């Protein structure tokens, strides 16, 4: 875990004091809303439909138990007793009062947390593989580099007034769990001839113009990586379009200029920038790495785990879905689903946050992670502790065995909260989850990712959902478009639209018809939804969704 | 021929609380849409929006929202305004918490 230096602490204290004064000046009338808005956004404070919303960064998704308890305290003291974990590893509080926000920020700072650059046209919270440092398949832990990027990008003087926001994701594994191809820059750590570096992907993004990122460089050694990234952002900062906010993201710049032209410009800029990096960044990286040293994994028998697995079918079902392989064979990675059927995806109560913090402290070397899939992870757990953890989770509605299944839905807040939304997403997610739970089909259906956004900005990642749902306002009524075949992993793909959208009360039955079609079409129980879709294509799904069109054509 | 003017209410968010408020005929800000002034004249609507915007130390983001006359006062014509006057659909938070207002 990264521990703040004196510099970090002093910087944050000063920044929070500045914002406190800005809030006071807004309230006493010295600042207009036009003047105040960019200042509050820089500090993560939005005004939504029903209230203010404070978005707190959880850099690369990593939290200690003390930090998680503090997030619980904020939820209880200044909000309505819960928080919402987002698709970019942040937590949002939906009901703060303007007067309370400076105190909330101070309370966060006490535990090394902040809301800086969670909004605005800056480099946003750097996200990472939520299994980082624990995954069996990783080359190296990406978090030290993510922390270096956080420090580099925070208040970076050149990058405070960019054409648009800029999002970076990093993974240490070939199996991409961080959606690096849908980020402005995606980094995959790779090793070449004993040298650690990164493959650099650029120009991915979702929103109204979804694009899969392209390879800018197949390998940049760590020594050069920060200079190379600075060169990349700098090229875009200079030539990215400022005339039209919908064409301002780097994906459009890459699309308009072509990846080869961008690469040439980046390389040219890199030669200018590189001499400014004299090794201080590498010295800092070495120091940061020390903060992320793996815990001393305890040894011990896993017999109790094996016997519980054999004898307790509920525990077995949970292990089969919610546990991932750890690099240490006696350990496991636990994903705690905060998506009990019918609950709001990503919401956790203050009490649940404390339970998860306690479990992390007792059993998981004091570490937690937040995933972009809106779940909470205990990254290092000795297998013999799994039965006790499962028992505790059951008491707090946290033991749902649905990770990777149809009810493990990503959903943005949608029009229940968001001022930008054009339709609701949360109730659609709730109803899909409840429906398939009632049908008891979930485990038979297997691996299936549904992702729902309440507007074209695509915070719910619908383009890369196996089934994507996009809520729109069509002539004053909520309407939902469906895409199929999206993929958020290393084989990233944007889904294909099925056809006309569905009304609010038609969308769950439409999803059911898609799933029924999959179950009919799959060649075995092992063939996943995505594999079936790739094999049979859109036609059978279309036929099931639009029987009238088929009848008319006949 | 000019298009018929759709009646409007002036709405905004409260600066301190952040919640949804409506301008009343007697120049108060109410939490209830039913108490809002329903404006049926376009020129008057612009004047009332200016009146609201002058109170920048109390409110944020005033705008004119479509509404129609109902039995108990103005009612929303669009689902977004319906959510704004009640609250989110996943919890009984927002205005539903204090004054139950079943959705039309």
TrEMBL record, chain A:
<dbReference type="GO" id="GO:0046872">
    <property type="term" value="F:metal ion binding"/>
</dbReference>
<dbReference type="GO" id="GO:0051539">
    <property type="term" value="F:4 iron, 4 sulfur cluster binding"/>
</dbReference>
<keyword id="KW-0349">Heme</keyword>
<feature type="domain" description="Nitrite/sulphite reductase 4Fe-4S">
    <location>
        <begin position="408"/>
        <end position="545"/>
    </location>
</feature>
<dbReference type="GO" id="GO:0050311">
    <property type="term" value="F:sulfite reductase (ferredoxin) activity"/>
</dbReference>
<dbReference type="InterPro" id="IPR036136">
    <property type="entry name" value="Nit/Sulf_reduc_fer-like_dom_sf"/>
</dbReference>
<keyword id="KW-0004">4Fe-4S</keyword>
<dbReference type="InterPro" id="IPR045854">
    <property type="entry name" value="NO2/SO3_Rdtase_4Fe4S_sf"/>
</dbReference>
<dbReference type="InterPro" id="IPR005117">
    <property type="entry name" value="NiRdtase/SiRdtase_haem-b_fer"/>
</dbReference>
<feature type="domain" description="Nitrite/Sulfite reductase ferredoxin-like">
    <location>
        <begin position="52"/>
        <end position="110"/>
    </location>
</feature>
<protein>
    <submittedName>
        <fullName>Sulfite reductase [ferredoxin]</fullName>
        <ecNumber>1.8.7.1</ecNumber>
    </submittedName>
</protein>
<dbReference type="GO" id="GO:0020037">
    <property type="term" value="F:heme binding"/>
</dbReference>
<keyword id="KW-0408">Iron</keyword>
<keyword id="KW-0560">Oxidoreductase</keyword>
<dbReference type="InterPro" id="IPR006067">
    <property type="entry name" value="NO2/SO3_Rdtase_4Fe4S_dom"/>
</dbReference>
<dbReference type="Pfam" id="PF03460">
    <property type="entry name" value="NIR_SIR_ferr"/>
</dbReference>
<feature type="domain" description="Nitrite/sulphite reductase 4Fe-4S">
    <location>
        <begin position="119"/>
        <end position="270"/>
    </location>
</feature>
<feature type="domain" description="Nitrite/Sulfite reductase ferredoxin-like">
    <location>
        <begin position="345"/>
        <end position="395"/>
    </location>
</feature>
<keyword id="KW-0479">Metal-binding</keyword>
<keyword id="KW-0411">Iron-sulfur</keyword>
<dbReference type="InterPro" id="IPR051329">
    <property type="entry name" value="NIR_SIR_4Fe-4S"/>
</dbReference>
<dbReference type="Pfam" id="PF01077">
    <property type="entry name" value="NIR_SIR"/>
</dbReference>
Automatic annotation (TrEMBL), chain B:
<feature type="region of interest" description="Disordered">
    <location>
        <begin position="69"/>
        <end position="104"/>
    </location>
</feature>
<dbReference type="InterPro" id="IPR021270">
    <property type="entry name" value="DUF2849"/>
</dbReference>
<protein>
    <submittedName>
        <fullName>Uncharacterized protein</fullName>
    </submittedName>
</protein>
<dbReference type="Pfam" id="PF11011">
    <property type="entry name" value="DUF2849"/>
</dbReference>
